[in-house]
Structure formats: structure tokens, C-alpha cells
Specification:
The protein is α+β, with helices and mostly antiparallel strands. The chain folds into three domains: 106 residues; 79 residues, no CATH class; 70 residues. It has five helices and 17 strands. Strands 2-7-4-5-6-3 form a six-stranded antiparallel β-sheet, with no helix packed on it. Strands 1, 9, 10, 11 and 14 form a five-stranded antiparallel β-sheet that branches. The protein has a three-stranded antiparallel β-sheet with strand order 8-13-12, covered by helices on one side. The radius of gyration is 27 Å and the shape is flat. The termini are far apart.
Length: 297
């Protein structure tokens, strides 16, 4: 961060600071704010290679016992409620589809969202986690990267609000494929699992800044911080914003910035091969897989 700010000040012809973090000089404070603003905006302007991050997790569940009636929303007599919370769905005899924990009342009792249609004493209950927190640096999800790695199947989604309600409330709404939806800050799946399934997806991180130790950050705060963007792009973007803030003519600096931005995006990752006669690839056996003779032997 310090070197970037020093480069900006040198090019602008204003005093060059020896430190940036904690510096009260008005120009330094403004340049740091504009540089952070550049980082925030560049985040959304391209699919930066270093911001695309793989993420995987295992589904969680608890098999236990409990007692419940048709007139109360509580399940009592649970040996332990450790680890349970409102991200878990409840499955058991008489418990309707899409019933969730609404509160963990004690070490032996939880409250659920729907009345049971049967009274059960010390019956088997499955608590299945269906809402999984997104990574702390999550910004957006990469389409078509959601996979059930245990079964080697792509997960189906994202489901719309209408499709999701059909899954939760319809008579026949489960199958071998996992459905998913981003809902309320969670990556939510359907149906729940009483097994450890390995699920995963790719997402775009908002952590464009890095500490000296390599920790992901959302902005510059320390002189030794670095970023994933090319240095020249950050310098030109900051200068452009400085000119805009001061009311200067931005024609030349904007041209330099745009050229650097397009070059940086173009060089950030490899381009796909383009065919003059594109056609979908075959996933089944075709003529090019059949021998010239002896077919069927």
C-alpha cells in the first residue's frame, strides 16, 4: 500500500509520505480513500482470476431420540442438543416435511416450526443441517460450479422462490439430485442428508487486499498490505479518482486508465479456443469410438 500511494503522490507532484496508515495529511488520507474505492469498484468490473475461490464442505447431521406430541411444538428428552441450531431440519415419525428448529431451549429440548401429526415417545429423530454459512469473504457465486462430489453429480439450482416452495411443500419433491438456493445469507440445500456428503462450489471473493502474512482483507489498512490487481492499474485508477474529486480534466488520464484496465483484464487469464464451426461434444459413444472391423466382438 505504501509504495502505491508513494507512486501516486510522485506522479501527482504532491508531498510523498513515509507512512500512510495513521497519517493525518489531507492529501494522503484522500488518496488512501480513493485507492480503497478503486479496489472496491475493480472487484465488480471483471472476473479476476485471483478472486475465484473453490469452497467445499461436508453435510452435517445428528441421529438421536426425543419425545413430542401433537399439541406442542417442543421435542423433549433429547440426550444432547449440543451443536444444534436453527440451520437444522427435523425428520421423524409424524413430523411434516420442511420442519425446522426454531430455537434450542435447553440441553434436552428444542422448539420446531410445525406440529407433529403423531405423538412419539423416545422415537428416532434425524436433525439434518440444510443451511450452510457462506465463506466470510464471499461476494458472489460462480454459476454451474455446484457439485455433489460424493456422488459425482452436479447440484441443481439456483432454484427460484416458487420452485423452492414447491420442493418444501409439494407431495413429491425429493430425488437423487441435490437442489440448492442462496437464501438469507446461507447456501441452502434440499433435501437434507443423514450422511456426510461432500459438496462444493466456486465463488468470487471480495478479499482484493492481502496482509503481509497473506491474510485476505477487504481494504487497505496497513502500509505493508498488497492487492491482487496490477500495480499500474491501481495507480491510474486512483489518479483518475483524484482528478475527478478535484474537478480536473480527466480526458487523458481516463484514456490511460481504460487502456491499462482492458490490458489487465485481457492478460488476467487465458482466452478460450474459438472454433469457426462449433458443435456440442458427444457424451455418448459415436462413430469415432467404433473400430473399423470386429465391432461387437
Amino acid at each position: 500500500m505504501l509504495q502505491l500511494v508513494q507512486q501516486v503522490t510522485n506522479e501527482l507532484g504532491v508531498p510523498t509520505p513515509t507512512t500512510v496508515a495513521g497519517n493525518t495529511n489531507q492529501d494522503v488520507t484522500q488518496i488512501l480513500a480513493l485507492m480503497n474505492a478503486s479496489g472496491y469498484e475493480l472487484l465488480r468490473k471483471a472476473d479476476w482470476r485471483e478472486l475465484t475461490t473453490p469452497y467445499s464442505f461436508f453435510t452435517e447431521y445428528t441421529t438421536t431420540t426425543g419425545t413430542y406430541t401433537t399439541t406442542a411444538l417442543t421435542i423433549t428428552g433429547i440426550p444432547s442438543t449440543t451443536g444444534l441450531d436453527t440451520t437444522y431440519m427435523v425428520v421423524g415419525t409424524g413430523i411434516p416435511n420442511a420442519t425446522f428448529i426454531t430455537s434450542v431451549d435447553s440441553s434436552t429440548q428444542v422448539t420446531i416450526s410445525t406440529y407433529s401429526t403423531s405423538a412419539v415417545t423416545a422415537g428416532t429423530i434425524y436433525f439434518q443441517k440444510v443451511k450452510y454459512a457462506l465463506p466470510s469473504d464471499y461476494d458472489s457465486i460462480v454459476p454451474r460450479t455446484q457439485w455433489d462430489k460424493s456422488k459425482h453429480w452436479e447440484m441443481l439450482g439456483p432454484e427460484s422462490a416458487q420452485q423452492w416452495e414447491w420442493l418444501l411443500s409439494g407431495f413429491i419433491s425429493t430425488g437423487p439430485r441435490i437442489r440448492w438456493r442462496l437464501l438469507g445469507g446461507y447456501f441452502q440445500i434440499w433435501p437434507g442428508y443423514s450422511a456426510n456428503e461432500n459438496l462444493g462450489f466456486e465463488y468470487r471473493s471480495k478479499g482484493w487486499a492481502l496482509s503481509a502474512a497473506g491474510a485476505v482483507k477487504n481494504s487497505f489498512t496497513v502500509d505493508t498490505d498488497t492487492c491482487i490487481y496490477p500495480d499500474r492499474l491501481m495507480v491510474l485508477s486512483t489518479k483518475l479518482k483524484y482528478f475527478q474529486a478535484k474537478g480536473f480534466d480527466t480526458t487523458a488520464i481516463y484514456r490511460d486508465y481504460l487502456t491499462e484496465f482492458e490490458t489487465s483484464v485481457g492478460q488476467d487469464t487465458s482466452a478460450a479456443n474459438l472454433s469457426f464451426a462449433p458443435r456440442p461434444g458427444s457424451v455418448l459413444i459415436g462413430w469415432d469410438n467404433i473400430p473399423d472391423s470386429g465391432y461387437g466382438n
